[in-house]
Design a protein that fits this description.
This protein has 2 domains: 124 residues, 3-Layer(aba) Sandwich (Rossmann fold), CATH 3.40.50; 79 residues, Thiamin pyrophosphokinase, catalytic domain (Rossmann fold, 3-Layer(aba) Sandwich). 24% of the residues lie in helices and 30% in strands. It is built from 6 helices and 14 strands. β6 and β7 form a beta hairpin. It is elongated, with a radius of gyration of 18 Å. The protein starts with a strand and ends with a helix.
């Protein structure tokens, strides 16, 4: 089942996340994101959160798919991910988790590392995708594709091949250290002894994507 979690950040305009929403079998909306989804002509499958940002009209119309969770120790995105895990869902695309507030954006990107311990999660934005890897990996790409690497663990060291600017046991002790690189060919490889690396990859230009 193709499952999308729509957070209450900026609603997407890029064709990649929009296609994910349109072709999803299930859209799990975080609280007020349901109103945005409905305004764009799509239907929520589940609406989850403390429901404080959901208009009364939406609550009345979709009362049979509401999941109220008042836990103040987690945000609505985490509640949605945990709901998916509890239902045996093994993969999700997260959309709308960036924009509006930078603190929420940073928090949601870092949380992706936690989510990826329990299911396969990819975050789609209007510029690219974020994925988390916990072992050596070769990633399909295309020449010139912009790539940035991040790690929550400042002691993590990473080595790359197939990137324009090679990394040799580089410690990702600051979030800027692995940014603004690009693929040299059709794939690149990352090697690291432990930890998790968050990989951002910019989408191809829209014209190239459509063609």
């Amino acid at each position: 089942m193709k499952t999308v979690i729509l957070a209450n950040g900026t609603f997407p305009i890029h064709p990649v996340p929009l296609a994910a929403l349109h072709f999803a079998d299930l859209v799990v909306c975080c609280d007020g994101a349901a109103e945005k989804l409905i305004a764009h002509g799509l239907e929520p499958g589940i609406i989850i959160g403390d429901l404080d940002s959901v208009p009364t009209s939406v609550i009345m119309r979709y009362e049979n798919i509401l999941v109220q969770d008042d836990d103040q120790e987690t945000n609505d995105l985490t509640k949605a991910v945990n709901w998916c895990i509890s239902r045996g869902i093994t993969g999700v695309k997260i959309i709308g988790a960036t924009g509006i507030r930078e603190d929420h954006t940073l928090g949601n990107i870092s949380l992706l590392a936690e989510y990826s311990r329990s299911l396969e999660a990819v975050m789609l934005t209007d510029t690219g995708s974020f994925r988390v890897y916990d072992r050596n990996v070769s990633i399909k790409s295309h020449p010139g594709q912009q790539v940035s690497l991040f790690s929550i663990d400042p002691s993590m060291k990473i080595t790359s091949s197939g990137l324009k600017y090679p990394l040799r046991d580089l410690p990702l002790k600051s979030w800027w250290r692995g940014t603004l690189n690009e693929a040299a060919g059709d794939q690149f490889s990352l090697e690291f002894a432990s930890g998790q690396v968050i990989v951002f990859m910019k989408y191809p230009e829209v014209e190239e994507f459509i063609s």
